[in-house]
Amino acid sequence: MTDLPGIVITGASGRMGQMLVKTVSESDKARLVGCVERAGHPWIGQDIGVAMGGPELGVTVTDDALVAFSRAQAVIDFSAPAATVEFVKLAAQARACHVIGTTGLAPEHLRHIELAARHAPIVRAGNMSLGVNLLVQLTRKVAAALDADFDIEVVEAHHRHKVDAPSGTALMLGEAAAEGRGVELGEVADRGRDGITGARERGHIGFSAIRGGDIVGEHDVIFAADGERIVLRHVATDRAIFARGALKAALWGQDRAPGEYDMFDVLGL
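Structure tokens predicted for 4-hydroxy-tetrahydrodipicolinate reductase (269 residues):
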């Protein structure tokens, strides 16, 4: 067991964090060696299994990420942009593979990730599921095949607690559509409509976000022309798919050269 890659989970108390703890601790291909939470969190000092309402797992929740990362071969991080920026520096210092599922990253955050990738492998994706990454590929191909007579809309739905919009997955899909069209997403994205907006501009890619209940994740890419529509859709009903994808990425990243990778690399797409 001790020769299995050791993995640290950040944001261990969150929905995704707890799912990752469960997935890694039950895996026969990796070991859970650390769980990190923000300073002052009530779980600090507790066994993560007990804090989650189950049996002891032998891993104590800590707010000292540097110490936790120093004994890990990989870090799985679904936290917040500001936290990810700090974690990426520490993971690079520890030469651990850093799997980043954090969304809402701005250009200044991405610059920190780019610098850290010079020292350690980083796998970053807005979505870790196989199905979504196949949807991204399909979106790129369909967008390339259709001209601007087909308006493109990305519609996403998530639970009421999600704090960023559009979702990271929606932006992945928008980027894929823009690449298929041979344009820059930033130049053609419509990310909010309210009031008298005027007619839709030809060639623009629109985004709509729905928030409510416990929706895990739903994404539609709509190609709409006069007289017909093509709809590509992915529905997630269990966030375990993202945890399994993240674990796959962490295992894939072992012994990889420093650099930035994504789930297309991990899945061989």
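Residues 262 and 268 are 10 Å apart (CA to CA).
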